[in-house]
Inverse folding.
């Protein structure tokens, strides 16, 4: 593949991905904006894959140390983003759903915090 | 053969992950489908992480002797980072969500910056374009890391007041220019230009130090009230950095996911800035705290207090009540009591709705999460545009812990710092009750014209204590009737 074609392809990929993101996110109602933000936090946790690539290709102590740091942060980003988003989304219930008795247990966290 | 096979599997898994992320985000268009959305996206992440171990079959010759050590480091980092963040994420209070989002932004930005650092120190970049993109991604990632740490510290109360000194904007600009200049030197150095005084690795260290310093300097002067916009911006920055490093590593999953997040962060930034009646540049480069205060002399009359039980009984016999919660409700930990009171009203056939202003919490949508946590069904929660016309026909508007978002001065008083900000039309209800700690201005320091309006009565006290009294008053009526 010649360089020019590769570049055009990548730019096209960026433009299409950004457009898709804008359209998809634009459809998320305001009530879900906090889980949306933590959910998109989770999505950029995919950076952990890049961290793994960098770490596997590290050949000096410095590269290994920074690669380790990259994977550590990326994994934390992905796992934490998932955990909070999943928790928040589970709280949204319709009024015809059974009343949440376990709601009390959840609020204890809040009082501590 | 094994190399080719690995690349095909990794490519497939990554594409699959990118698709599942998009599909998952798409399911967030309704609270009913959203929980399944995040699970679908989670599967994509697991697939991508597992597949990336196949990178081991493609490593460069220099790294091959270190493979076992690198695998050990990778597994350790995944376990520590993943388990630690998972544990914290399951426990953290919903009121602390803005801090958490700031932390995750910083982590993602830091990871992207670190990838750039490994590529630069290892000399893995090929050609000018790749080098420049690596530097750009590293710069944005590092700014996002250090800026998010400051944002976290402000949201968590570690840093109390915005730090502002004279000539700060000039200093920030100087640091930015220096960072870009160092990036230029690194490019020249890699291209083999001589006479640059320091070695390439030294310049790389200086580059990251400058970028980190810029993130700190840029975030320090921004006031606490503007943090929602700031964390949205860093969300976009981190997405962009991840997307750029995806190009460097030729990984389409990083490119697509990063760009999607970048667009999402930008959109949320625009929404937040609009709701606060500020431009993004205004948030970043001017200081909200220094805006001139409105003159209190413009408002005539006085605040009229009333009793909690009188207000409660009035609401019990109303046919429609709209509740306007603000962050003060969460600060008083009164969401549970509020919903308990609402349930009594519902049992008495009163129509109750919650009206949420976009900046009601400390980040977009936080008040919705706090109400959902307390058990309020999402079909009772309405956003500004959907409910604002209903106030005119409502019997009672109950304002709890909110102030600026119901200040009619935003509509009429050109001298008010919040003039032009979209507000909830609580003042148009037949009767308005405001639960408030005491007389005096809210935390923005702006006088609220609503409190002096003839249809408004103040219920002074701690939100939780007031709601307990209201619940008792309505329960007492029920007992008398039976």
């Amino acid at each position: 593949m010649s360089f020019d074609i590769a570049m055009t392809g990548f730019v096209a990929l960026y433009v299409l991905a950004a457009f898709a993101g804008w359209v998809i996110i634009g459809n998320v109602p305001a009530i879900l904006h906090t889980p949306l933000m933590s959910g998109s936090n989770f999505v950029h946790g995919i950076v952990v894959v890049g961290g793994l690539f960098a770490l596997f290709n590290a050949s000096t102590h410095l590269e290994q140390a920074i690669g380790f740091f990259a994977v550590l942060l990326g994994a934390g980003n992905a796992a934490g983003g998932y955990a909070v988003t999943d928790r928040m989304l589970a709280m949204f219930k319709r009024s015809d759903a059974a009343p949440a008795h376990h709601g009390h247990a959840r609020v204890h966290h809040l009082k501590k915090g | 053969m094994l190399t080719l096979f690995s690349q095909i599997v990794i490519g497939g898994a990554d594409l699959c992950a990118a698709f599942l992320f998009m599909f998952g985000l798409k399911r967030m268009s309704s609270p009913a489908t959203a929980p399944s959305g995040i699970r679908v996206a989670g599967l994509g992440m697991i697939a991508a992480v597992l597949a990336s171990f196949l990178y081991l079959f493609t490593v460069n010759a220099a790294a091959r002797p270190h493979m076992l050590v690198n695998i050990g480091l990778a597994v350790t980092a995944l376990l520590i980072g993943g388990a630690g963040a998972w544990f914290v994420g399951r426990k953290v209070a919903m009121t602390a969500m803005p801090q958490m989002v700031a932390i995750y932004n910083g982590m993602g930005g830091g990871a992207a910056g670190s990838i750039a650092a490994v590529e630069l120190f290892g000399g893995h970049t090929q050609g000018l374009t790749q080098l420049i993109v690596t530097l750009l991604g590293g710069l944005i990632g590092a700014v996002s890391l250090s800026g998010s740490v400051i944002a976290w510290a402000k949201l968590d109360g570690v840093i109390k007041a915005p730090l502002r000194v004279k000539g700060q904007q000039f200093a920030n600009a100087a640091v930015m220019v220096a960072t870009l200049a160092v990036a230029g030197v690194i490019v020249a150095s890699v291209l083999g230009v001589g006479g640059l005084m320091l070695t390439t690795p030294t310049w790389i260290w200086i580059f990251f130090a400058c970028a980190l310093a810029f993130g700190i300097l840029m975030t320090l002067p921004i006031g606490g009230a503007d943090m929602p916009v700031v964390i949205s911006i860093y969300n976009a920055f981190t997405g962009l950095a991840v997307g750029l490093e995806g190009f460097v590593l030729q990984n389409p999953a990083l490119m697509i996911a990063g760009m999607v997040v970048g667009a999402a962060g930008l959109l949320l930034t625009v929404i937040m800035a609009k709701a606060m009646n500020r431009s993004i540049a205004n948030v970043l480069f001017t200081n909200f705290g220094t805006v001139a205060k409105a003159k209190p002399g413009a408002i005539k009359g006085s605040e009229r207090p009333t009793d909690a039980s009188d207000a409660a009984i009035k609401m019990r016999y109303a046919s429609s009540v709209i509740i306007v919660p603000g962050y003060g409700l969460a600060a008083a930990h009164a969401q549970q009591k509020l919903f308990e009171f609402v349930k009594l009203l519902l049992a008495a056939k009163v129509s109750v709705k919650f009206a949420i202003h976009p900046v009601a919490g400390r980040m977009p949508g936080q008040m919705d999460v706090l109400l959902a946590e307390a058990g309020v069904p999402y079909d009772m929660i309405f956003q500004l545009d959907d409910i604002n016309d209903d106030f005119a026909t409502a019997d009672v508007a109950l304002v709890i812990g909110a102030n600026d978002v119901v200040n009619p001065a935003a509509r009429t008083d050109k001298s008010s710092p919040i003039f032009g900000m979209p507000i909830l039309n609580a003042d148009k209800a037949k009767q308005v009750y405001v639960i408030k700690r005491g007389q005096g201005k809210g935390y923005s320091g702006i006088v609220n014209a609503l409190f002096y309006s003839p249809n408004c009565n103040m219920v002074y006290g701690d939100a939780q204590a007031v709601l307990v009294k209201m619940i008792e008053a309505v329960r007492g009526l029920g007992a008398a009737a039976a």
In short: Chain B has 17 helices and six strands. Residues 127-155 of chain B form the longest helix (29 residues). The mean pLDDT of chain B is 89. The CA atoms of residues 268 and 466 of chain B lie 35 Å apart.
